[in-house]
Amino acid sequence: MKHVIVAQDLSCFGKCSLTIALPVLSTAQIATSVFPSALLSSHTGGLGKVHIKDLHEDMQAILRHWQSIPFSIDALYSGYVANIEQMEQIHALFSQYPHAFKLVDPVMGDHGKLYASLCRDLPSHMRILCEEADLITPNLTEAYALLGKPYTENQEEVEEIIKQLYTCTHAQIVLTGIPLENDQIGCALYCGDDTIIWHSQTRIPQDFHGSGDLFAAALLGAYLQSGDLHRAVDIAQTFVAASLQYSAHQACDERFGILFEPLLHAYHEMLWKK
Ligand code: PXL
What we know:
Distance between the termini: 20 Å
Number of helices: 9
Bound molecules: 3-hydroxy-5-(hydroxymethyl)-2-methylisonicotinaldehyde
CATH class: Alpha Beta
Radius of gyration: 17 Å
């Protein structure tokens, strides 16, 4: 069985990070271990004053203990990182397991804005982490932040942005959240050759928290199971689109998080469909 270490925060309310990654990877029949960066009373996306316990010192102790446990690992997966101290521990994790596949989801913002909870110079540090990755999954906002460029929604620039990101990271890239014509939203896959592969779906006007985390976790699960990144993008996008549609239909509070649980069986079926 494949085994992934998920380096993310535990937000006690409002689905995101670990509360999304763990159920999704379990559905993909992948074993998980946890490298927790922080404990928060909720995510930082509009639910009021958040209690935060930074765990970077604990991360160091966890890594030290793991050195004495003979386990093997297939992949490392990082997401939201709030500060440089946590980032250093994720670098240490990557160094401790150099042969594992590394997915870095450079979670930093959306709709042209970076999250206020992040430390100022996080983008340049996140870029260095991306340089260690095999696969990165920025949205458009994060892609511009990684390159230190002002955000625009100019579709003609997207191909240039994705290629520049590849040049500086040498990681395979799935760029998400690209606004397209006719109420579509797209993502683009680039692996360093000449072709960018586009996937698109109908845009849903609501903004359910954790949708990006759901995409990255579903992508990793599908990629580790199929070995086919193109197919994995298709599966992750279909799963997230169905979860968004379901969440919109239930009219739940967007801040409470995307409802994906009733769609996990469909994700599972897509993974094992011949
Ligand atoms: O979904 C991204 C995310 C993860 N973790 C925490 C967050 C956010 C986005 O706001 O606040 C703690």
